């Protein structure tokens, strides 16, 4: 309206159900909407009635959002989390008489009843205002829709009836109210899905009977009972159900409840536990066995740490033989007191166990999935189980521990965050590992924030679960950081791998070169020295050769190599002569040796004589003869 730029904002609107208030919300940023609102409604707001909302629309600078009409308003009602949009079509009237001052009033209708049921409990309202320039501001408030919701529960003492023994069963009906307002004159109509085969002593239970109270307050399950007898007349399975459940509120408005049903089986007994010929239908051919079926048990229970709660479980013997039956809960750490500890259940009969559960002070809070297990005490292979959820809620002491854990884990997060980026700056974390740890840090921060929100909402079960996840991820991060410190998680980025690979390459190349050298045969043909026959050399000889070469390369330096400890004279003498007769070191390239005629045969003869009379070896002798001839 003032020609100023505006941005979107979410605003909080507060209400009081008995007085008009003018509460201006804090602006979030400059040039955002600032709304205020109050709600006028009866203390008990009912379904299908009008309630009035008054609110003021302002800009952040204090100027009014003036001259708006119903088309600038949208109302959203949230009961189940779907934020149904009523728009202005659900507004029965809109008052803009004071719109010059940004003050507006509208009447809206609460959700009407459907099929005799109301959307009882808290409804959240969101008021959306726009000024026609695509700028939208939101404000939220709430109201309480009060209404009763009748319901009935029932159980059967025996859901397997033996037609031959003309057994009857007892149907027990209880009255309850799930709503938020007291109900009156409740009545339950029962029915069976067959016109014959199973009959009931009566089909109506209502609150006018002397054994029932005349009203049921909000959230109450009536402790008094309506008892009905079931009599079987034909074999079959029958659904016993609540045909209708009805009640009235304090204004005489009718409300309906949800339907329930129960299955009852009728069979004809043909066996005898004694196995004799009495009875009918070939009794001796009947195999008598017990079989169990848990027919009644809770699906969920909630108990605080250090406290107890009780429930009942019914087990039926659907077999043809009586059995001794026990009941247990398959959850370690809790204390249970089950009465009776053991009971005999006849064929086709059922028995009820009373289960008292006590939770230790230090038992883990949260939801625990477990089972009721009924089994034959003489044969544990015959059993039946029913699952249920045991929710353990925290004491005030546990809540304080969770608060302290949140503070501790937040400090741990801040500490490892700083330590991690110190390692990054020192080049001890590779890029891949940096990305991995940053993802874990983000998850830890998100879980810590969610835990803080849960604690603020007094949802300590959710907070505890989130903090357990935080603890696991912090431990993972610390383990990674220990590896980084030890150099086991990626080194120092781009530079460390380069020099590391250079060093490794040099070491490998040197090792390969040394291995090739050690495997090479002795020298053969040489232009300078001619041909020298190859000879086998062991590792020690090669090392000595290497030592000799190093001495030639570094004159005056004594090469130290590993050699054998004992050197014989013969080895020393052989080392002085390297060539056979007829060849000379450093001969001219045009030199050609031509032995005299008969040289070969005479040489062998002379060598034989010399060897027998002289200690000079053949190679030394040949060398001396060659030297003498050259001198001549």
**Principal-axes shape call:** flat
The secondary structure category is alpha+beta
Low-confidence segments, given as residue ranges, are: 1-43, 270-288, 489-496, 559-577, 613-619
The overall strand count is 31
CATH topology assignment of the domain at 9-145? Immunoglobulin-like
The share of residues in extended strands comes to 25-35%
* Gross CATH architecture of the domain at 9-145: Sandwich
- How many helices does DSSP assign? 8
User: Mean pLDDT score, rounded?
Assistant: 72
**Helical content (DSSP H or I, runs of 4+):** 25-40%
Query: Assembly type of the shown chains?
Result: single chain
Gap between N and C termini, in Å?
131 Å
Folded structure, characterized:
The chain has eight helices and 31 strands. The protein is of the alpha+beta class and 632 residues long. Among the domains are: 9-145, Immunoglobulin-like, CATH 2.60.40; 148-270, Immunoglobulin-like (Sandwich); 396-485; 567-632, no CATH class. The strands form seven sheets. Strands 11, 13, 15, 16, 18, 19 and 20 form a seven-stranded mixed β-sheet that branches. Strands 1-9-8-4-5 form a five-stranded mixed β-sheet, with no helix packed on it. Strand 6 (91-95) and strand 7 form a beta hairpin. Helix 2 (431-456) packs antiparallel against helix 3 (460-485). The radius of gyration is 50 Å and the shape is flat. The chain starts with 8 loop residues before the first strand and ends with a helix.
Notable characteristics:
632 residues, Immunoglobulin-like, alpha+beta, 8 helices, 31 strands, five-stranded mixed sheet, flat, seven-stranded mixed sheet
């Amino acid at each position: 309206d003032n020609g100023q730029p505006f941005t979107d904002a979410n605003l909080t609107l507060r209400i009081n159900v008995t007085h008009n208030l003018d509460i201006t919300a804090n602006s979030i940023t400059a040039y955002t909407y600032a709304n205020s609102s109050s709600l006028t409604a009866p203390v008990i707001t009912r379904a299908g009635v009008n309630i009035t909302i008054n609110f003021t629309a302002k800009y952040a600078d204090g100027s009014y959002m003036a001259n708006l009409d119903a088309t600038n308003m949208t109302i959203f009602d949230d009961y189940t989390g779907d934020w149904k949009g009523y728009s202005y079509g659900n507004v029965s009237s809109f008052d803009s008489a004071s719109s010059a001052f940004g003050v507006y009033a509208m009447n809206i209708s609460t959700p009407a009843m459907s099929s005799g049921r109301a959307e009882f409990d808290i409804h959240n309202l969101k008021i959306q205002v726009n000024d026609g320039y695509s700028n939208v501001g939101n404000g939220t408030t709430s109201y309480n829709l009060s209404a009763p919701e009748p319901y009935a529960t029932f159980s059967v003492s025996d859901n397997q009836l033996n037609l031959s023994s003309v057994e009857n069963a007892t149907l027990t009906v209880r009255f309850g109210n799930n709503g938020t307002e007291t109900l009156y004159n409740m009545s339950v109509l029962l029915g069976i899905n067959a016109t014959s085969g199973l009959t009931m002593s009566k089909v109506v239970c209502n609150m006018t009977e002397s054994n029932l109270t005349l009203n049921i307050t909000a959230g109450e399950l009536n402790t008094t009972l309506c008892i009905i007898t079931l009599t079987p007349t034909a074999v079959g399975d029958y659904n016993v159900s609540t045909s209708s459940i009805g009640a009235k509120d304090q204004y005489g408005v009718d409300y309906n409840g949800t339907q329930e049903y129960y299955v009852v089986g009728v069979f004809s007994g043909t066996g005898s536990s004694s196995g004799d010929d009495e009875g009918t239908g070939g009794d001796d051919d009947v195999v008598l066995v017990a079989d169990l079926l848990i027919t009644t048990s809770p699906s969920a229970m909630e108990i605080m740490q250090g406290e107890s709660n009780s429930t009942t479980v019914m087990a039926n013997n659907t077999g043809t033989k009586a059995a001794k039956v026990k009941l247990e809960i398959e959850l370690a750490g809790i204390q249970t007191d089950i009465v009776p500890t053991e009971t005999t259940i006849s064929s086709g009969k059922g028995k009820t166990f009373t289960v008292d559960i006590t939770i230790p002070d230090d038992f883990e809070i949260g939801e625990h999935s477990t089972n009721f297990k009924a089994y034959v005490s003489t044969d544990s292979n015959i059993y039946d189980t029913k699952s249920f959820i045991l929710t353990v809620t925290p004491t005030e002491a546990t809540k304080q521990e969770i608060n302290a854990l949140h503070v501790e884990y937040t400090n741990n997060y801040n500490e490892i965050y700083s330590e991690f980026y110190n390692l990054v700056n020192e080049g001890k974390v590779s890029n891949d590992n940096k990305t991995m740890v940053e993802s874990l840090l983000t998850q830890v921060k998100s879980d810590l924030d969610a835990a803080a929100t849960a604690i603020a909402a007094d949802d300590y079960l959710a907070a505890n679960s989130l903090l357990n996840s935080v603890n696991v991820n912090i431990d993972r991060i610390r383990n990674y950081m220990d590896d980084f410190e030890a150099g086991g998680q990626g080194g120092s980025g781009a530079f460390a791998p380069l020099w590391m690979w250079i060093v490794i390459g040099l070491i490998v190349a040197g090792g390969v070169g040394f291995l090739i050298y050690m495997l090479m045969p002795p020298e053969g043909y040489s232009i300078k020295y001619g041909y020298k026959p190859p000879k086998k050399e062991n590792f020690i000889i090669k090392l000595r050769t290497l030592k000799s070469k190093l001495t030639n390369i570094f004159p005056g330096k004594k090469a130290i190599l590993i050699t054998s400890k004992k050197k014989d004279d013969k080895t020393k003498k052989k080392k002085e002569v390297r060539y056979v007769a007829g060849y000379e070191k450093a001969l001219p390239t045009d030199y050609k040796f031509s032995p005299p005629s008969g040289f070969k045969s005479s040489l062998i003869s002379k060598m034989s004589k010399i060897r027998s009379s002289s200690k000079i070896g053949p190679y030394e002798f040949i060398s001396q003869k060659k030297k003498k001839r050259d001198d001549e």
